[in-house]
Amino acid sequence: MPTTFQTVPNAQPAERAAAIAQVVLPIGAGLLAPALDPNAAAAAGAGFLAGATFAGANYMNRLGRWANVLPGIDIARAHRDTMGISTITTGMSLALGLAEGTDGVDMLMAGVLNPVSVPGILSLGWWAAVGLIGYRLRRVFGKHQVAVQQHTPAAAAAANTKAPAPLTPAEKIMAAWERTISDPDKGQHRHQVLTDVSVYMTYWTGRIIAPAGTSVNVTKEAVSSVYHVNPAWITILHGNHAGEALITVSYVQPTELDPNTLQGAWERVKKRILPKTHLEEVGKDENTGGQVARVVADDDLDALPRVVNLGELAGALRRSIDLVSYEPGRRDPRRAVIRVMDHNPLEAGHEFQGLDSLKATPGGWVNIGKIVSGFPAKIQLFDPKLGALHVVIAGTTGSGKGGTAQMISLAYHANKMAQIYGDPKGASNPAIPKMAAYSGLTQAGALGAMRISWWVLKHRIDEAARLELKNFVPSAMRPYCATILDEAAQLLAPGAPNRKEAVKIVKDGASLTRSLGMPWVLINQTVNLDQLGSEQAIRANLLAGGTWIILRTDSDQINLGDLPPGFDGIDPSLIPPVWVEDDDALVYDPTMAESDPRRTFGLGYVAAPGGRAGMMRIDNLEDATPHIRPENIMAPVDVPWWGDQAYMEELAQTPIPGFEEKDSEGGTGEAGTSFPGIDLPKARELTSEEKVLAALRDESDPMYVDMVDQGDEIGPEDVDYVERGQLQAACGVAESTFANVLNKLEKAGKIHRLKNGKTSKVALGPRPEATGEEAA
Q1: Can you name the residues that pair with 235 across neighbouring β-strands?
Q2: For position 426, what pLDDT does the model report?
Q3: How does strand 277-285 pair with strand 614-618?
Q4: Helix 118-136 / helix 13-32 crossing angle, nearest 10 deg
Q5: Could you say which of 3.30.70, 3.30.1340, 1.10.3130, 3.30.980 is the CATH number of the domain covering 166-250?
Q6: Which range, 21-30, 48-57, 639-648, 731-740, has the best average confidence (pLDDT)?
Q7: CATH topology of domain 688-764
Q8: Could you tell me the CATH superfamily of domain 355-653?
Q9: CA–CA distance from 760 to each of 724, 739, 756 (Å)?
Q10: Which residues lie below 8 Å from residue 400, measured CB to CB, with a gap of 6+?
Q11: Which position has the higher pLDDT, 257 or 673?
């Protein structure tokens, strides 16, 4: 049969009419508005508001499922960008026509003749927007040629059949497919037919069926050559069985392929950073002016990678690291939240709202700043069951470390918690000593403050044992008492004087103070283990019992493995020291004013217990002094000697028991048992079993340990479990030996284990009955 080419419109009449209306309305509304009487003007205004509301919701993809039944909704959704521009320009012409009459319309439409005036600039912008509508819709007004087979009487007679020419766009698409792809003699993919074609404004869909016993193998390139469409604009997906596939062919570039959108940029991310993932619920983030979406693992991927390099992710998205936020799912390992920002909402900061804004919830949570998502940045000062919770703050000079420490101290003050403050550098944060019950400034003074904290801890341990106190209940006479140590490396890092004694104090504080109402706040430039005393027990207890706030750090943060869980993939040294500016010219121009760089003071990441690391910024507060209330300055007056200044200074200047003698290097020696009553000879080397049991006793709640020692009846709800990894870090036994030791101790009835997903927990004593959980 002979083939001819027929010129057909690119779009259906309904779509062409919608496109014409979008171009004409801005001009027509302005010309007609001055002629409307008051009643007609009111009706026109009401009609415009209704239409603008619909167009705005359509532009933000917020119409909902109810709109699916509206006639022409596919056209509205495909034209949502141009409809939005048309709505704005129509509103401008209608408003000027109704308010200013003919003069207003002339100013809007003819002002372009005088472009150097303010009306001329406004008119020029308006006409540019109207012209952009027509330019964006040019494809709708165009035409294209389609090959059509001519069914002549002679050809029909030869084929002994009548083959009518295709009439509808769907029939023409299937006819072209039949001639070039599925033709049984000359087709590229013979007998693989196209059916169920539906034609939309900017794309068409269909179903490919392969002969029985074969699978669909039609390629995008074959379809592209037939319909003259970019192969990247074609999608072929598996159907219900191997012999079926679903095809979508777009006439224009799909949004998900536009590299300027999050969907388009994600194509790079899938290839390089997060393969086998896709985006869902993509939408505009009103808080940042950018886009937000859920990252979801594909069906053949069980979980998203635990570690995502934020620097590489920002590079793939073509953004600065401070303009990208990646938040792993709290409960679902197959989901995360990605934000790509046009501006970081944290740049403007958030002013401190007063002391009452730091009042803790019953669960001990306080708001200290803002997360990039707009939610408050929360930390937990204490837990009604776990007791006091530790805080670690890390950041280089100028990162906002001091301001963060001041905010934490003010949170303690707001909740009437006593504070012991040590600052080796001196009064680097002058507001904190004003809120503290005891302050030790300079290196010797900071060590003295640590010693005072240790003796307060000793008193509370002795008192808890004597009075059989199980849970810490704060009161005005026995308040929570936090110990804040600034520049911790000056006392805990290698080479620091009295390092061993300081490490011992921090180790006891991190391990034993939670159930006694004595949290620790360690402040340092990095979180490298050697800078925190090289003690895994310190790190393990700080991880399990508190909040980590990581601000911008420098090159000294060489070991990212020392970052706690939740900070995987985050390199704090990549946080820029100043907010990114767009006026960075290649050549200096003295006539162009350059903006002053603004520092990213207080910008970092926070992870609270059971939470996730989120980009946040501490509330702006230059000086906490005006917010200090004398009645909120508390002291641990439950200690009998508190207030005896001479005795307290003697304790501050005297090494704790076990560190009285100095070695050849001038440092104090190792301590033996915590809080010894008498001097003992050096203990023998502990066996692996003894190390595990000793570490487990240290990591467990002292009240629970007493219940096990005394043979009390213990219910499942009373058991205090320790994470397996935390226990191994605390005892220092190698993994291969550690596993065998746990098996031995469990068989002997000295411990029992519970399995929790892929991890396990360990507790002293035999398993209580009816735990309801699977044994490890």
Answers
A1: 248
A2: 76
A3: unpaired
A4: 170
A5: 3.30.980
A6: 639-648
A7: Arc Repressor Mutant, subunit A (1.10.10)
A8: P-loop containing nucleotide triphosphate hydrolases (3.40.50.300)
A9: 6, 12, 5
A10: 551, 600, 601, 602, 603, 604, 618
A11: 257
